[in-house]
Amino acid sequence: MRTLQKLAIAGLTLVLCGSAIAQGGIFGQILDATRGKTGVAGDIFDKAKPIIENAGIDEAKEIEIGNEFAAVLLGAKPLLNDPALQRYVNTLGRWLASQTERPDLPWTFGVLDDVGFNAFATPGGKIFVTKGLLARMRNEAELVGVLSHEIAHVVLKHHVNAMQSKAWVDVAGDFASSKFKGNLAEFKSMAVNLGKDMITKGFDKGDEYAADRVGVVIAARAGFDPYGLPNVLQTLQAQSAQDGNFNLLFKTHPSPTDRLDNLDKVMRNRFESTNGSQGRSFSDRLKEFSR
Tens digit of pLDDT for each residue in 252-278? Predict the structure, then answer.
């Protein structure tokens, strides 16, 4: 990946995360190392500085990148041709998203025509679950737990934080080797490539644990049983990582046991006073949304 392209992506994701580290960390070290220098390092700094300073990326750009990520997902697995089911999941998801600190994002939820057990989120609020996952949900509260976990990734901006981290590590490596070539017109495709990498490799464990913790809170705020997600994780404990329907999930997430242990430390008795609902049956919901 060419250095200037990486700088464009890094600048883009830096602003998306609302970060104030421009004079610290890796970025600060790079700028300090190149200030006042001539030759290749000086050229890189001179050309990279206006890219970073004039990026002007806001929430709208986060949404735009999310749309690109969604296109990648839908290119691999199309939406399931079931309008009633799509309306139901979209309505439920938007209700959950309305309980968060980012209710005004253009939240959209869909079901992928895939027998595997998985769920995906993109920056800006597009969430997908597979039909294979839905088929294994025992009640509405479990589906709520899964959707809330994915919503939490977006609320906490885990995608853009991960992009920023990867981009800056790569940029630092190219600075060290004094390589420079670039074409700013390709920065969006570079960002999408980073997104593909996240889809196949997942977030770090800390992000997954955080999404679990915030997810149970979102479920409780929305009036559902916060133990829906732990129940799903208990189901996953009985599955094999070698099963083709589950291997991507196990590859991109901590083990269900570790996630349950982490949640147990957080939840304890905190939700005992809640009267969260298990929700209605899926058959009833589909009848409602088929009218």
Answer: 788 899 999 999 888 877 766 567 899
Neighbouring residues of 190: CB distance < 8 A, sequence distance ≥ 6: 1, 5, 6, 8, 9
Buried b (16+ CB within 10 A) or exposed e, 58-78: eeebbbebbebbbeebeeebe
pLDDT in tens, 155-188: 999 887 776 665 545 544 444 444 434 444 455 6
Identify any residues that bridge with 277 across adjacent strands, giving them in sequence order. Answer: 224
Q: What are phi and psi of 8, to 5 degrees?
A: -60, -45
Q: Are 174 and 220 in contact (CB under 8 A)?
A: no
Tokens linked to 161: 């934080």
Burial class (CB in 10 A: 0-12, 13-18, 19+), 273: exposed
Q: Residue 106: phi, psi to the nearest 5?
A: -80, 65
| pTM of the predicted model as reported, rounded to 2 decimal places | 0.74
What one-character DSSP code corresponds to residue 79?
B
